[in-house]
Structures are given as C-alpha cells and as structure tokens.
Write a structure and sequence with these properties.
about 280 residues; mainly alpha; 11 helices; globular; binds zinc ion
C-alpha cells in the first residue's frame, strides 16, 4: 500500500488507540472526549488548516526545488531509509527545541504559539491547535530539507505520519509511566506539564519527540504531582479566525514583570531562570 493511503490509515487507527487508552488509563480523570474546543481542533485545525497548509508548504518546497533542482541530486538518497528517518527526526527535533524555547522567550514569537497553549483540556487532539504561521514556518523548515536532500515523497509522508502520531501521544490524557525511557523519548508525563496553566509562559519541557534535549539543556521538569490545570491565564478568542487574527494585535507597552516570586524561583530551579515570558507584554 502506498504512503498516500497508509499515512491517514495509521493516523486514524492510532488516534482510536489513544482515545481508548485515555479512557482506560486517564492522566486527568473526568476529562471528556468531546471537551471544550473539540470541534474547533478537529474540523478547523486538524482537517481544514492541515489540508490548506499542506498545499501551501508543498508549493513552497516545489518552488525551491524548481529553482535549485536539488532533489534530483538525491544527496542523502544513498542512505538506508532508517538512517534518513533518524537523521531528519534528530535534526528537526533539535531545531524545534530551540525555536519552541525562543517562542516562550520572545513576545513576537509567542504570538504564533499562544494558540497552542490556549487548550484547556489537553488530550490526543490538543496538539493540532497551532497557529497557521507557526505550522507554515516549522513544517517548511522540516519538509524542505527532507524533499530537497532525498527527493522522496515517501519519506515526507513517513515523517509526517510520525509527527502526527507522536503529537497525539505527547498531548494524550494517558497516565503513562515511561520510567527511564522518558529521559530519551518524550511523552505526556513531561509535555502535559509544558501546558500547565500554573506555569504557562515559563521555560521547561520544550522537547517534542526527544526528551533528552531538555535534560541536556537544563529545562527538564518532571515532578511527581500533576498540573493544576491547562490553558492561558488571560481570555483568548474561541473561534478559529479569532485565534488566527489575535496574533497580530498591537503590542501593549510592558509595565512590570508581575511574576509571583514562587514561580520565578521555580523557573530558576529547573534551569530556565531568565527564560521568562511576561504574559500580556
Ligand atoms: Zn510551548
Ligand atoms: Zn503541546
């Protein structure tokens, strides 16, 4: 079966597995399947936005290829498929770690990331809520090298499938206990804390697929307790268009860094001191 059909099949099947596991082993008990924002995240972010941006990103990558003819060189084409997958997983994840960290540091970048943090019930679907500009930047940077260095549409589809499955997993409401594996591979144990309402805007657990970036760069946070809640402190638009446009509102002059001392010191303890984004700035 070609990846054109295999990819959506794998995504649909794994989503059902995650939904089942959320039901049997919930991280936060009582969280509903059709929670607030479900239709927004499923129909508008997962289906419509992904579909439209898929065309846009493909057009950009094909445009670069048309101008450079790089894909015809098959620079990495001689590598085994598993080595190509590992190479792109590793390099893109390192990029995402630092870009994500910068998004929590610089207000202008936070503007295209806050929609992702506006989900109040983090579950298998929550990861789909990302501003269109954030997706456009990250996925162009992700898929352009894949296509230009290998010329393989299959590798593009394989990487996109891994992204989708892993994105569902790290946000899922599954009470996973990965043990030492969590030091290497990221999961809900750490990423759900990244969405914590109490700590939104603070710097920890930026990793997507690999957790070791956070341990290497001193931003890992893995307490035994669970987050008190998820989402943003401030009101945020509820509609897709509202969230899209809200990123371009004027910046208000920054008055004072109104950070509770307890939270500020906690940020320092986990190695992220100074990497504090002041909400509303
Ligand atoms: Zn974030
Ligand atoms: Zn997330």
């Amino acid at each position: 079966m070609s990846w054109q059909y295999l990819s959506p099949l794998i995504i649909v099947v794994t989503s059902q597995v995650f939904i089942l596991l959320e039901h049997v082993f919930p991280y936060d008990k009582g969280q509903k399947l059709f929670r607030k924002g479900w239709f927004l995240d499923f129909f508008l972010y997962s289906l419509l936005q992904s579909f439209v941006l898929g065309f846009a990103i493909n057009a950009i990558v094909q445009g670069i290829d048309h101008a450079t003819h790089l894909s015809a060189l098959h620079v990495l084409g001689g590598w085994p498929l598993w080595a190509q997958i590992l190479f792109f997983l590793f390099t893109h994840d390192l990029y995402i770690y630092w870009f994500h960290r910068a998004q929590h540091r610089f207000p202008v970048l936070w503007r295209i990331h806050e929609a992702h943090h506006s989900v109040e019930n983090v579950d298998w679907l929550a990861g789909s809520r990302s501003h269109a500009l954030e997706i456009l930047i990250n996925q162009t940077i992700e898929f352009a090298p894949i296509y230009l260095l290998t010329g393989s549409p299959d590798l593009w589809a394989i990487k996109a499938t891994i992204d989708a499955v892993w994105g569902m997993y790290i946000h899922s409401n599954i009470n996973s206990k990965a043990g030492v594996i969590q030091y290497v591979l990221n999961g809900p144990e750490m990423h759900r804390w990244h969405h914590s309402k109490e700590y939104t805007g603070y710097g920890f657990n930026y990793g997507t697929k690999f957790a070791f970036w956070d341990f290497i760069f001193g931003t890992a946070y893995r307490p035994a307790k669970k987050p008190p809640g998820y989402g943003l402190d401030e009101p945020f638009p509820q509609s897709y268009l509202g969230q899209l446009v809200y990123a371009f509102r004027p910046f208000r002059p920054q008055t004072s860094p109104a950070l509770p001392l307890s939270l500020a010191s906690e940020g320092e303890q986990n190695g992220s001191g100074g990497e504090v984004y002041v909400k509303g700035a």
